[in-house]
Amino acid sequence: MTHPLEAKLNASAADIMEAISKGFRAQADVKGKLAELYFSRALDGLKARGVIGGYTWNDKDGEPDFVIEIDGTSIVAEVKNIRSGSEKRLVGDGWGTVEIQKTRNGTDAAGKKTRG
Fold first, then answer.
1. Does residue 111 fall inside a structural domain?
2. Count of the separate structural domains present in the chain
3. Predicted local confidence at residue 25, as pLDDT
4. What is the mean pLDDT of residues 61-74?
């Protein structure tokens, strides 16, 4: 059975994997998307248990990766890969960490901070 991405790219899964293996940037992009996929699966579990009301998974520049609905409140989440083993923490059913953005304190055109 052919995966829809194979048809879209007109390439076999093996060729797609080989192409990714040849490119640092492609691998970084796939790692990031895998992190988002695994996070969405965790959110699916939380939704099934009634812990969250739902979520939106965005894939657009300038938008957060996820908007999560909890008790009528929307929170945003950016998903990143952990860079070193020393930062890993066991959280619930898997590894992860939560942190407040602490770098790149940007501002928008009106001077409002765009990051915490």
1. no
2. 1
3. 95
4. 92
